Amino acid sequence: MEFKFEKNRIYIENDNNECIGEVTFPSTSENEVSINHTFVDNSLRGQGIAGRLMVELAEHLRKNGKKAYATCPYAKKWFDDHSEYNDIYLIK
């Protein structure tokens, strides 16, 4: 699976270049982002794709010295379940 990066977005596409999964995280300050949306196409549900997107995002944020808070319910739950990323997660 190839993750693609845009400013404030990590996503995957199918063979027709259609988005089939994404996580968006607009900047709220120089060193903070708000994870506000996760999406996985119904055809991929139950395969752990959303979790893989979140790991990719968490590692990206850590590498770039940024912190995140979540307004997306899935992202909030994911961080609750993955304490190994507490160093980048801000509870607001």
Overall description:
- This protein is an alpha+beta fold and 92 residues long.
- The chain has a single domain (4-85), classed as Aminopeptidase (3-Layer(aba) Sandwich), CATH 3.40.630.
- 26% of the residues lie in helices and 32% in strands.
- The chain contains 2 helices and 7 strands, in the order E-E-E-E-E-E-H-E-H.
- A 4-stranded antiparallel beta sheet has the order 1-2-3-6. The protein has a 3-stranded mixed beta sheet with strand order 4-5-7.
- Strand 4 and strand 5 (32-35) form a beta hairpin.
SSE diagram, text form:
Layout: E1 4-6, E2 9-13, E3 19-24, E4 27-29, E5 32-35, E6 37-40, H1 49-63, E7 67-70, H2 73-81
Parallel strand pairs: 5-7
Antiparallel strand pairs: 1-2, 2-3, 3-6, 4-5
